[in-house]
Amino acid sequence: MFRRPNGRRLAVLCGLGFALAGCGDSKQANPQAAAPPPAVTVMKVSATDVKPTASFAGRVEAILKVDLRARVDGFLQKRLFREGADVKEGDLLLVIEKGLYQSAVDQAKAAIVTAEATLKLADVEVGRQTELFSRNVGAQARVDEVTAKQGEARGNLMAQKAALEKAELQLSYTDIVAPIAGRIGRANVSVGNFVGPNSGTLATIVSQDPIYVNFPVSQREILAVRKEQGALKPAEYVIYLQLADGSRYASPGQLNFLDVTVNQGTDTVQVRASFPNPNRILVDGQIVTVTVELGHGEKMVQIPQHAFQIDQSGTFVLVLDKDNKVQVRRIELGEFAGMNVNVAKGLNTGETIVTEGIQRVRPGQAVQPNEVKPGG
């Protein structure tokens, strides 16, 4: 049987329902009201002294490079170097058997002793015959004869001394020493093999520090530099190298040679720079990327590459206003400089841009900035 609800009970239930509904609304609204602004990393834009640059493909070249060769025939007796090691000028590296050449030296010395004795006897005979002729006892013909023999003996002595010098020189060739300081390569002949002037290169020494880098520059680029920068001195060029792994070589180089002829096939001029190489990082024949800074720099705004974005309308960055709200700023990019990029137009020094956390914010939204210094 249907019973009419009690009015008082109905009022209590209704009041309880409204109270529960109100509590539920307040729990849903409070988290949104208390949410803090998103944190982002920002940096103040500053002007950097930027110099015009140009990049070229270059090749490392040793200043000195010597092929060691045998100058006399003989069996290779000793190898006194470790392949790939540094050697000093004058270090003994290879030894060819000396027996035959030492015997030639000893024989030449003996011949000199004989020649000296012959000359001494000729000198005595010339003195005796001259004395007799002065007393009208000897004949002029006899004096002339012994004088001729004296000259013959003197000439023979000189010939024997020359033979000794030649023998000693050939003996010295059995010791192959380092003519320059540098790093020695692989030994091409093993100990025990017969070597001679026709044996080819026994080993190669390459100087290490300093070292050259050669790179071709087109005539068009040279003319462009002269028009924009004027006549620059070699000291005003600063040259950097980029290695195969993308890293920059620690020490900058100095331009020291511009070729006097143009390659007719490529219309380029060979340019050479010198680099210190104390740690032997640069190796003869190595390919590197050469970056040349030209002339005097100018102040330009520079930002990290990850700070800009691209959409259908172009390139932009997120800039913070005085209330720390995000604003979209359209910019024009210049040349890339390592991990940074030059901004040709659109940003001024002192403005604050978002560098990290870009995906968490939208235009007009307030953020919590965490500033880092440029380059940090």
Would you kindly provide a written description of the structure presented here, covering whatever features stand out?
The longest helix has 36 residues. 29% of the residues lie in helices and 33% in strands. A hairpin with a 2-residue loop joins strand 21 and strand 22. It contains 4 helices and 24 strands. Among the domains are: 86 residues, Beta Barrel (conserved putative lor/sdh protein from methanococcus maripaludis s2 fold); 94 residues, Efflux pump adaptor protein, beta barrel domain (Elongation Factor Tu (Ef-tu), domain 3); 76 residues, Helix Hairpins, CATH 1.10.287. The protein has 376 residues and is of the alpha+beta class.
Per DSSP, the total helix count is: 4
Percentage beta strand = 25-35%
- Could you describe the largest sheet, including whether it forms a barrel? 6 strands, mixed
Distance between the termini: 82 Å
Unreliable runs: 10-27
The overall strand count is 24
**Average pLDDT taken over every residue:** 82
- Helix-strand sequence: HEEEEEEEHHEEEEEHEEEEEEEEEEEE
Given helix and strand content, the structural type is alpha+beta
In CATH, what is the class of the domain at 53-63 and 211-293?
A: Mainly Beta
Give the overall shape. Answer: elongated
List descriptors.
conserved putative lor/sdh protein from methanococcus maripaludis s2 fold, alpha+beta, six-stranded antiparallel sheet, 4 helices, elongated, Helix Hairpins, Elongation Factor Tu (Ef-tu), domain 3, six-stranded mixed sheet
Short structural description:
By secondary structure, the chain is α+β, with helices and mostly antiparallel strands. The chain is built from 4 helices and 24 strands. The protein has helices spanning 7-34, 99-134, 140-172, 219-229; strands at residues 39-44, 47-50, 53-61, 65-68, 74-79, 86-87, 92-96, 175-177, 182-184, 194-195, 203-206, 211-218, 238-242, 254-258, 268-275, 287-293, 298-304, 309-311, 314-320, 326-330, 332-337, 340-345, 352-356, 368-371.
